[in-house]
Amino acid sequence: MTQSSMDRRSFLAAMGGTAGALSFGLPRVAFAQSQTARISEAIHLGLYMPLYTAINKGFFEEQGLGSKLSTAGGIAKPVPALLSGSADFAVTGTGMSINATAEGAQMVNVAKIAGQISVFVVTRPGMTFSGPEDFEGKTIATLQFPSNTYTTPAYAMQQAGLDPETDATFLQLPFGAQLQAVADGRADLATVFEWDASIGATQFDLEVKFALGEALGPAVFSSTFVTKELTEEQPELVQGYCNAIAAAEKLLHEDEQVFVEVATKEFPTVDPAVIEAARPRFFGDVPIVPRNPTISEQEWNTLVAHEAGVGTLRADLPYSQMVDNSFAEKAAQEFGLS
């Protein structure tokens, strides 16, 4: 058994233990009746810019809601927050809603937060990289599995007819170490999120060569999901949340400087030059910042194919079960978003 196969097995086993214990072994805490949107984000990421914009620009207050944001500290950790009743909304990788539901916790996705599997290929100057076939024979610096910095290049290689376990070497590193590994020659290239892509370009003299997410197409990479119970018991809370996200996504596309303003406030340790360098990558042909919060079946299928292809899903659950667009569609109509 390869190390990556063991990693996948361990990841899924851990997900099962977490969701299963919380679904069946602990009492369900009743939802708070106060009109505060209690949000659990996986980690503090630039990908979640619509959420931060909604908070910073007062869009929750405009909907008659307070907002309380907490950072869970990992991609799967917002699920326990929802199931214990300490949060109402989870903002994290969409696949986490599938894994939790497969274990018996009825989750539904209600808003799109990131519309692209936003992983970028960064190399030293002069290296050619024009597509996934160029991963062949390379050492790739990534974060630890199941980070998308690992799974997305692996999936792209599969799509290009390569075997990620034999045709490339994955150098799995802790946070903050990928760019240095490319700069000092331990890796040929790195696959990274923002802000790392722009840090590489502005501080390490590296080049951002390829957007894997644009090649894969629109996808509901990060979403907001809730328990089905919340949509039935507090639909006005869910609607107000989706309205706030829609207002934020509209504003971000109308004025990209809002992205810079909010990002500078939310990430004060990130050099403003890095944020400015990153801005165009959030608003490309396949934008990371969605144009509206609705989730299309195509976006769902792209994400599911990706996650299933790299072994991070416990089940293949259908769009019709896992997505409730009714709130996002009303929000999009309210704010004139197509």
From TrEMBL:
Principal subcellular localisation of the protein: periplasm
GO cellular component terms given for this protein: periplasmic space
Subcellular location: Periplasm
Signal found in the keyword field: yes
Record domain SsuA/THI5-like: where: 49-253
Coiled-coil features, chain-numbered ranges: none
Keywords, in A-Z order: Signal
Gene3D superfamilies (UniProt xref): Periplasmic binding protein-like II
Record-linked PANTHER family: ALIPHATIC SULFONATES-BINDING PROTEIN-RELATED, TAURINE-BINDING PERIPLASMIC PROTEIN
Family per similarity comment: Belongs to the bacterial solute-binding protein SsuA/TauA family.
Name of the protein in its database record: NitT/TauT family transport system substrate-binding protein
The species this protein was found in: Allosediminivita pacifica
Taxonomic lineage: Bacteria, Pseudomonadati, Pseudomonadota, Alphaproteobacteria, Rhodobacterales
